[in-house]
Amino acid sequence: MLSLPIHACTRTVLVHPHYPENVGAAARAIKTMGFAELVLVKPGRLAVPEHEMARKMAVKSLDVLEAAVRHATLRDAVGSDRLVLAATSRRGVSGVHSPRVAAVRAVEHAARGGRVAVVFGNEKTGLDQTDLQLADVLVRIPMAADQPSLNLAQAVQVLAYELLVAGLAARAG
Questions:
Q1: How far apart, in whole angstroms, are the C-alpha atoms of residue 162 and residue 9?
Q2: Which terminus of the chain has fewer CB atoms gathered within 10 Å of its CB, N or C?
Q3: CATH 3.30.70.100, domain 5-172, yes or no
Q4: What's the 3-state SS for the chain?
Q5: Residue 26's pLDDT band (boundaries 50, 70, 90)?
Q6: What Cα–Cα distance (Å) separates residue 173 from each residue in 44, 91, 105, 147?
Q7: pLDDT tens digits for range 34-57
């Protein structure tokens, strides 16, 4: 499997995920892009790796799903030594970056030996203001349609893809 510096230092954090399908699909999404560290912060009662639907959606990614770590708070999940990218669909927030720009920043941080946390909120409510305040970089995925947001696992896939592409570009020089 392809390994880049960004792969070894990045964790994907799902804050209070609600649907087990999204947890399993997120595990699959990150693994397809070469990432392996999945963290769950206060998952909903059903949104756990052991749930049948999470396992069903984690096609060829059960290793990532089963290794998922759980934390009680986002602060515990990201630690203090990481660049924190937080996905948001909120409009009117200043200083928000595209996934491509945020991924380049994350890859540069990783190249200097830093660690990265990519954080996603609950499917229904997103990240609350307290969680957003922990972010170093806010990221919004642009959309052409008038939709409030993407599905959680789709958003994870987009950011994981951009991190992979930025990592490949950095390696190519």
A1: 15
A2: C
A3: no
A4: CCCCHHHHHEEEEEECCCCHHHHHHHHHHHHHCCCCEEEEECCCCCCCCCCHHHHHHCCCCHHHHHCCEEECCHHHHHCCCEEEEEECCCCCCCCEECHHHHHHHHHHHHHCCCEEEEEECECCCECCHHHHCCCCEEECCCCCCCCCCCCHHHHHHHHHHHHHHHHHHHHHC
A5: very high
A6: 42, 35, 15, 37
A7: 999 999 999 998 989 999 999 999
Tokens of 96: 């928000």
pTM of the model: 0.96
Within its chain, how far is the Cα of 46 from the centroid?
Answer: 19
- Could you report the per-residue pLDDT of 63-79, keeping only the tens digit for each? 999 999 999 999 999 98
- Taking the chain, what is the end-to-end CA distance rounded to the nearest angstrom? 21
